[in-house]
């Protein structure tokens, strides 16, 4: 009953001899935050990009709800999986409302529904819609912009969130606030989340379960953050 299952996945990038990941097997349960932690270059981002099919594996299989992802329509995947990266890159010439409703707009919801969803998402991001919906990204602080990035990934209410060092570029005090806010949000939303970080403290704080990656594959899966301390 894994929500996401990686079965002996390998990814060898074109023109490289050493795989970025290999023999990578991992289960992510519904409603949990599974943290992938490990040093830079060990294949964390690659793993996320494999799950949402930005890239294709060169070996092994990936399943969502026991369905081979290679058989799922890419548009449907985009609706089911939200993706947050460190530098979210809001579109500078679009308003905050347009930015935050990127996925609903892509999915061509009708105008009223998009506007209502944009306001909901602004609330989630802690921004008053009256004040912020028609403003532009450059008027946001770093913390606010990253909140918009997280809310944008929730645009079409996906079942799964892939989060690649989402708070990595934020100052430590704001980062701690965003972590806490996100954990509160997750307590309600109960998304299935794969959360990537190279920061062990963040892993312990955010993870229901933690998988430690060495070079290229999982070296240890832990049921709870507490057990990482004994490792
Ligand atoms: P992490 O997210 O853990 O820092 P990555 O998944 O970004 O690691 O990278 C894993 C390995 O794959 C690294 O050796 C990196 O250089 C390599 N890599 C990542 N993206 C590409 C790419 N597009 N082409 C070739 N090699 C890549
Ligand atoms: P946050 O905790 O949301 O990241 P900050 O402490 O960085 O907030 O910023 C405090 C306030 O200053 C924010 O509510 C934001 O409205 C405002 N602010 C920060 N940077 C800018 C900016 N470049 N333009 C306009 N307002 C800004």
Automatic annotation (TrEMBL):
Keyword Transferase (UniProt): no
Gene Ontology MF terms in the entry: ATP binding
Superkingdom of the organism of origin: Bacteria
UniProt keyword Repeat, yes or no: yes
Residue span, ABC transporter domain: 4-231
Keyword field: ATP-binding, Nucleotide-binding, Repeat, Transport
Sequence similarity: Belongs to the ABC transporter superfamily.
Protein name: ABC transporter ATP-binding protein
Provenance organism: Actinotalea lenta
